[in-house]
Amino acid sequence: MMPWTGGPSRAASGTPPGWAAGLSPSLPHSRPLSEEEPRASSLPNIPNPFPELCSPSNSPILNSPPGGQGPPREGACHMVKVFSEDGSCRSLEVSAGTTARQLCEMLVQRTHALHDHSWALVELHQHLALERCLEDHESVVEVQSAWPLGADSRFVFRKNFAKYELFKSNSLFPEVMVSSCLEANKSMAHSELIQNFLNSGSCPEVQGFLQLREASRKVWKRFYFSLRRSGLYYSTKGTSKDPRHLQYFADLTESNIYYVTQGKKHYGTPTEFGFCIKPYKVRSGVKGLKLLCSEDEQSRTCWMAAFRLFKYGMQLYRNYQQAQARLSQHPWITPTPLQSVSDSALVAMDFSGCTGRVIENPSEVLTAVLEEAQAWRVSGEHRLGVGPPLSVCAHSAASIHRTQPWFHGRISREDTQQLIGRQGLVDGVFLVRESQRNPKGFVLSLCHLQKVKHYLILPSEEEGRLYFTMDDGQTRFADLIQLVEFHQINRGILPCKLRHYCTCVAL
After folding, report:
1. Which tens digits make up the pLDDT trace of 137-190?
2. Rounded to whole angstroms, how far apart are CA atoms 436 and 341?
3. Model confidence pTM above 0.85
4. Residue 178 sits in the same domain as residue 225
5. Does residue 370 surpass a pLDDT of 50?
6. Are both 211 and 308 inside the same structural domain?
7. pLDDT reported for residue 2
8. At CA 475, angle to CA 470 and CA 476, rounded to 5?
9. Can you give the residue range of the structural domain that contains 258?
10. Which of 186, 203, 325, 402 has the greatest number of beta carbons closer than 10 A?
């Protein structure tokens, strides 16, 4: 029996029991088992049915941040689902670094669509009525990983003829909306103005009035805004740009800009020309969205184009140059001319004499076109050795257009305007559809000056032959294909030539 030394006991001195055994004081001592807690040895040995949940490094559920899908992992394969305009979808397996341009090229090959630079991948948030066209260099997986789990966000594969219009259109940036700290851009050419935007050393601004939705009261109020490289500001005192009156509103580098597709329904916008600045940190819900509204389409287009130029800078211009380079390498794949041609240019030629001459009279042009088309049809019938009955010719002329990508069947005027608006409000974007008011007629819907105009095409018959006309028979065409091809070369009665046709592909 050990003698008692008279020193204090461990309980009295507060010394943990483990110290006597030489354990480090940094290790916590175990909590004693209570009577209600069974010992481990008394539990049956049951195998874990979900072993993957025990490894946080391999668990996508435990690795995902709250409310998101988590950042993409390098080297891993990801599934991306893409929808088309008609609602069909296709799932593709891509890598983390796959860009929007690369994914569009994959879809063009799989759908056997005509390859050109106007195909785009659109990010659509249906519950927020927001959409934007991804830039060619953006990572598809990275954009998808920022979506909230369970939301109805999706990618849509469609044409966007306005994607690079900011580098080509002279009317995109009105002088009244663009200013510079040097006040030197009022007489600048369009190319010089674009270089001014891309040059980080210069400091242009886009300015003008916008309607702002106040989040607290959900009402719209008009303010004078200024968009600079450092961000978007609005003035608290009229049009004053004094630093004391400028209120910081939004950051460019940490946000994306979206079209508001149904502004009056979802947000009560005063006009149909709403757009939204959505910070990266806002994953779901309306809270945190910065909603704005322009007076017209030209103003909205200017604001959104300047936002893209300030945010992406030279990267955006490199995307445009690469798209142009792809067209120059394969010039036969583009359905539209690469360079703009004057609307008044006529290319019809008369080779009946010893030398050719340009036909300048529009009525003579139409006569030559009709004669050439009729001669081509007659020669084709002779080659086949048969002459089809007149009823067969009329039926062919009335239905041959159904095979063309620009023909969209029986869709409404509202759907037509939405379709052309989604694919880009660029001069010359068009489609042909059946008329809802006239059961025998058709409608040519054409975009000009960012507005969609509709022209009625009526069939007429003369001497047993079927013709189509848009001007009460003054100019007549044998079928709709001839009508469209003529106006792709000549303006005729239209405000501009037909340049880009709206088309939809099924995935």
Report:
1. 999 999 999 998 888 899 999 999 999 998 988 788 888 898 764 455 456 787
2. 34
3. no
4. yes
5. yes
6. yes
7. 45
8. 85
9. 165-313
10. 203
